[in-house]
Specification:
By secondary structure, this protein is mostly helical. The protein has helices at 8-32, 39-46, 50-56, 60-81, 89-106, 108-120, 125-148, 158-178, 189-201.
Length: 205
C-alpha cells in the first residue's frame, strides 16, 4: 500500500481554507438567510473555488450544520473550559450561569444566527434539530449530571430544572436584545442570575 504523507504546511493550508469557508458561509447566511444562500456565494465570499467548498462540505445543509457545530464548540469552551463543574453549587452555578448569560447577550453574531435558524426552521427542520443536538442536548447532560452529584440541592427533576434555567436565559436574551425589550422592560442580567440561583438553591436545608 502506498502511504501519502501530508505535510504540516498542507494541513495548515487545509485548516485555513475550512476556516475561510466557514467564515464566508456565516456572512452569507446572516445576510441572505439559509434559502437565499448558495454554495457559489459562499465560495465567492470565502475567496475559494466552488470545488474547494464541495471538497470539504457535501452540501449547503452540511455547511450550515458545521457552523452549528463550531458555535457549539465555542459555547462550551467559553462556558465550561475555564470553569469545570466541580465544587460548591452556590459558587460554581453562579459563575457558569453568569458567564453563559453574559455571552448570550453580548454576542451579536450568535443572536443573528439564532434569528436565521428560527426563521428557517419551519421549512428546514433538520437545521433546528442539529441545533438541539449539538448545543441543547450536551448542556442538559453536563449540567444535569452536575446537579445529580449534589443531592443536597433536593432537585426532584434535574432535566426539567436545567431546561427551566436555559429557557429563562434564552428568553432574557431574546426579549432584551433580539426584540429590543431593554428599551421597554429593561432588566439587569444580575437580577436574572440572582433569581435563577434562588430557585436552584432553595431546596438546601
Amino acid at each position: 500500500m502506498v502511504q501519502i504523507k501530508v505535510s504540516e504546511t498542507e494541513r495548515e493550508s487545509t485548516a485555513e481554507k475550512i476556516e475561510k469557508i466557514l467564515t464566508g458561509a456565516m456572512q452569507e447566511f446572516l445576510k441572505h438567510g439559509y434559502a437565499g444562500t448558495s454554495m457559489d456565494k459562499v465560495a465567492s465570499r470565502a475567496g475559494v473555488s466552488k470545488a474547494t467548498v464541495y471538497s470539504h462540505f457535501k452540501d449547503k445543509e452540511g455547511l450550515f450544520k458545521a457552523l452549528i457545530h463550531q458555535l457549539a464548540e465555542e459555547k462550551f469552551r467559553d462556558t465550561f473550559a475555564t470553569v469545570p463543574l466541580e465544587g460548591e453549587p452556590a459558587v460554581v452555578l453562579r459563575i457558569v450561569i453568569t458567564k453563559a448569560l453574559n455571552k448570550m447577550i453580548s454576542d451579536r453574531e450568535h443572536q443573528a444566527f439564532v434569528r436565521v435558524l428560527i426563521g428557517e426552521s419551519g421549512r428546514f427542520p433538520e437545521l433546528a434539530k442539529a441545533w438541539i443536538h449539538d448545543i441543547m442536548t450536551p448542556t442538559l447532560e453536563i449540567v444535569g449530571e452536575y446537579l445529580d452529584r449534589h443531592p443536597e440541592l433536593n432537585i426532584p427533576d434535574t432535566e426539567a430544572t436545567v431546561r427551566m434555567v436555559i429557557g429563562s436565559m434564552v428568553h432574557f436574551m431574546m426579549t432584551q436584545e433580539m426584540l429590543y425589550g431593554k428599551e421597554i422592560i429593561p432588566m439587569s442580567s444580575d437580577r436574572m442570575v440572582d433569581c435563577l440561583m434562588h430557585h436552584l438553591l432553595q431546596g438546601i436545608d
